[in-house]
Amino acid sequence: MIKHLKIYIFIFITVFYFSINCAVSLEVKKIDLDDAIQLSLSNNLDLQSARIEVELAKNGVGIANRLKNPEINFFYNFGRAGRSEPQMLGVSQTLEIAKRAPRKRLAKSELLQKELDVKTAEFTLEMDVRETYVDLVGAKTILNDLTEQREILQELLILAQKRYKANKCSQTDVIQAQIALNKLETEINSAKTLLNLRRNDFNKALNIKENTSVIYDTKEDSLPGETVFISLKTPDYNQKMPTFEEIEKRALDKRNDIKQAKQAVDIAQKNFSVVARQRIPDIEVMGGYSFLPSTHADSGSFESGAYVGANLTNIPLLYSYKPEIKNAKLQIEQAQINYESVRNKAQKDLSSAYDKFLSSRENLIFYKQKLVKDSEDLIKISKKNYNEGKADLTSVVVMEQSYRDILTGYIMALADYYTDWIDFLREVNSEDFNLYGENL
């Protein structure tokens, strides 16, 4: 028995030692939202991969501008077939007619598309970092408020114990207060778990290849407060919001997906030009040095000279590229339809996102001006009445639970206000969109 006890103690000490070491080695860095965005834009692994696509497309422009490589030709005749026939050494070169310029224009258009893809990836990353940042601050806010509620219940438990000792209430009040406090502890544990998940989501969005002992955290520890609206780059809910018609045109002009769809039309048009010009024949030119050895020449002496020549190649007689041309025309039509579809959907998505944001604002105002303030007054009155013996503990506990639910609802409404603004920015495709005039 003693031997087993020693083993258990050894295991416990070992686990505890490694846990302490892991906790100590984990460095937490607090950063604000702007620093988080810049950090991700500079170091995000997915974004680094996307930027390589631009470099590949730049090389594609050079590839499209290429010239055909020349050929070196040598002709030597043997035997009687070579008598009185010159031997030749020269160069031939195929010249593409009206093909290089369209091919280069297509490659440049594809490069512009890749650059738009990177801008979209950068913006998506900014929004992901911003959203996970707000979610993390929201989780910290919930935990903070639950911790404050624990203090209220602890005070209530102490008050019940004092009243019980003074024979002013039954032991049931003490037990009921203890149960309420224990129930709150489970909610606090769940809030801690949620906080860890949100912190992991935030670091996952950053996606930085760095020392694994470093974990990033938000500078803010709570959502409420007038300065937080500024630091989290969100409009103050007290400001009057413009109508959708006032912001629609400016918002749609910012969308990268519309620019990308429009660029796809340009790519399809330039691709048609490249395909259509495949029907134009190319010219092969050649020239070089020719000579006739004295043993093969009728004059009996060495004869030398030169030769030139030209050929038409790729003459569209057997195959005229009709299927490729038809496909290229269809691709233009398809790209134009897709552009109209993207623009039409963008208008609907933008309208829905703005309506959702305005709804979150109304909910937040209602919580801020009505529910939270009234609930704070009620919980103070309930505690006072219980202390004076004018109310029973059950009503106070019920009131505290209602107050807790309202606070949680308020925090969720506040978080929804932030995240719905982020969703609106996603539809605008602009990080610094200004609702009231010129964009920043």
Fold and architecture overview:
The protein is of the alpha+beta class and 440 residues long. Helices cover 67% and strands 10% of the residues. It is built from ten helices and six strands, in the order αβααββααβαααββαα. Strands 2-3-5-6 form a four-stranded antiparallel sheet, with no helix packed on it. The protein starts with a helix and ends in a 12-residue tail after the last helix.
Quick take:
With 440 residues, the chain is an alpha+beta fold.
Regions with little confidence, pLDDT below 50 for 5+ residues: 1-24
Radius of gyration, whole Å: 38 Å
Largest sheet: 4 strands, antiparallel
What is the 3D form? Answer: elongated
Helix count from the secondary structure assignment: 10
Helix content: 55-70%
Head-to-tail CA distance between termini: 74 Å
- What class do helices, strands and sheet pairing give? alpha+beta
What order do the SSEs take from the amino end to the carboxyl end, as H and E? HEHHEEHHEHHHEEHH
**DSSP summary, beta strand count:** 6
